[in-house]
Amino acid sequence: LTPIAPLQLTVVAQQQPNSVVTPTLPSATLLPQTTGVAVVEQVVTRPPSQWQPPALIPPISRDPYGRDHYIFARPVDSNANNAALLSYTFGTNGPEGEAPWRIHTGIDMPNPIGQTVRAAGTGTVIWAGPGFQESPSYGNLVEIQHDFGYKGETLYTLYAHLSAVLVTEGQRINLGDPIGLVGNTGRVSGPHVHFEVRVGENRYRATYNPLLWMVPYVGRGVIAGRAVGPNGSLLQDQNVTVIDNRTGLVVQATTTYIFLDNGSDVNSDPLWKENFVFGDIPVGRYQVITNIDGQRVVQRVDVSEGMTSFVDLALQESSATVTPTASS
Ligand SMILES: [Zn+2]
């Protein structure tokens, strides 16, 4: 057992005059760190110009066919960075041109060490500390088993790489409660919170894309879709781009899920059966673009607040506009 040291929490003065200062938590416990970086900040605030609008209030399911399940809150505040790292989205293997990283089972939100991490929903803490499931990769981790399920399945959320853990196993937790501080423990390239959603079983192979479970912001929606090859199979590690239909500017780009068939693959949503997702897209009209067999496939889509808009990308005249790619 590693000794547990008391945490000296100090609120660091912020540069911005309007920054929010909350009281220091009295009974936090600092867990052993692998990095040696001291935890000194409890409130980390970006300039108000970078703040996000407030998130919608979970749970919401606005899809007329009941396919949506935005039942979790966001794990960090709106004045923190909520955007998932686009170079390492769920189900992908990291930045292009680098040696493949492990397939990503969650989303990463880069934030300074010390940013408060909050419970995405009511439940019970079932893990609080390092060594989660015999893996050093997650660093200090909090896992919550939620009080609510989805279609008869148990739901879990995980918050990894924490610099400090503010809860203990067995503790009851409400939505929004502080559960830890952002850190860089475990296998990381920089400080961030890794947010993971598991459905049905508390196993590595039971992860689903958090962008389909975590409420979008006010005025934002989600695009999910399938990129399918001529034989009907899901195209893997395929570039997909969203452009604004009016301006033609790129809004987001990602790659499709990779399935290794090794028993611990990520999962498509059972109802959407997607292999890519774009989160927090402002309400509006977009084009979703990919290349299949050298042909440019474009699908137009309207994004509505708090809902998933789905696109099928395939070489079918009936469902997509197909134009030959200009040869260079
Ligand atoms: Zn991660």
Task: Please provide a written account of the structure.
The chain has 328 residues and is mainly beta. The protein has two domains: 1-218, Glucose Permease (Domain IIA); 220-324, Immunoglobulin-like (Sandwich), CATH 2.60.40. The protein is 0% helix and 34% strand. It has strands spanning 5-6, 29-30, 107-110, 116-118, 123-129, 140-150, 153-162, 164-165, 172-173, 178-181, 192-199, 207-208, 220-227, 239-244, 250-255, 276-282, 284-292, 295-303, 308-313, 321-324. The strands form five sheets. Strands 3, 5, 6, 7, 9, 11 and 12 form a seven-stranded antiparallel β-sheet that branches. It is globular, with a radius of gyration of 20 Å. The relative contact order is 0.15.
What sort of overall outline do the alpha carbons produce when their principal axes are compared?
globular
CATH superfamily of the largest domain: Glucose Permease (Domain IIA)
Helix content: under 10%
The major pleated sheet works out as: 7 strands, antiparallel
CATH C-level class of the largest domain is Mainly Beta
Bound compounds = zinc ion
What's the β-strand tally?
A: 20
CATH topology of the largest domain: Glucose Permease (Domain IIA)
Low-confidence stretches: 1-37
